Amino acid sequence: MKSADDTVAFPSIKRAEALLASMPDTSITINSVSDLDIKLGLTFYANAYPEANYILAGIQSVHSKVIIELSNQLPLSWVASVLVTGEISPNQLAYPFSSNSDQFSMRLNNEITLNHDENGWRIPSYDSRKYSVRIGLGMGVEEIYWGCSVTVAPNSNVRLEADAYELFRLDMIVPLGYPVTPTPPDAWQIPLGSKALLSFSASGIGTLTFVTANQTAQSPP
Questions:
Q1: CA quadruple 41, 87, 126, 144: dihedral positive or negative?
Q2: pLDDT at residue 77 tops 80
Q3: By C-alpha distance, which of 40, 29, 38 is closest to 70?
Q4: Cα–Cα nearest to 78, from 63, 93, 91, 66
Q5: Residue closest to 89 by CA, chosen among 177, 176, 9, 149
Q6: N or C: which end of the chain has fewer CB within 10 A?
Q7: Residue-wise burial string across 167-193, b where 16 or more C-beta atoms lie within 10 A, e elsewhere
């Protein structure tokens, strides 16, 4: 779907099946020394070729302390879509994420079925003049929002590896499902399987630390 300014939007996907897969336990606690009404956006970072685009999948305000159990509140799903040229919105499907080696098949229409296994996505031949095909990762329980997206070519193999949730300062009004560009130093990645603490000083500077069983290590700048 496109807006009036030709920006591509990514509609959310209603979950059609029970969430049975489990994923690495991932969480973040966010503290603010002062009530600065900090606005954060959430997207997802994945290693991919072609390079993945970031999509806004969540919004969070911080006044004092917020705890987000990412793996429970915003579990990951593999997502894919097919948009017919000239139509309003794509056909979309989702599959619960457990690892980068998940095996599944997505039949998006009579002509296009996508497959995924330990080697990544297998994209069949299709008419690129008629269809636009995207794969990615989304997050959510009942409603899944795209977190990253890759436009894929016909008859190709694409390796898309889930890496980290990404929080970033959101300084403008952006609707869910629209592309965003997280920019350091106001963007922080929380890798799958990690527990993190993001602390904002009185001047609004955010510092990310990672908590392990034995130590807390500050993330690199």
A1: positive
A2: yes
A3: 29
A4: 93
A5: 9
A6: C
A7: bbbbeeeeebbebbebeeeebbbbebe
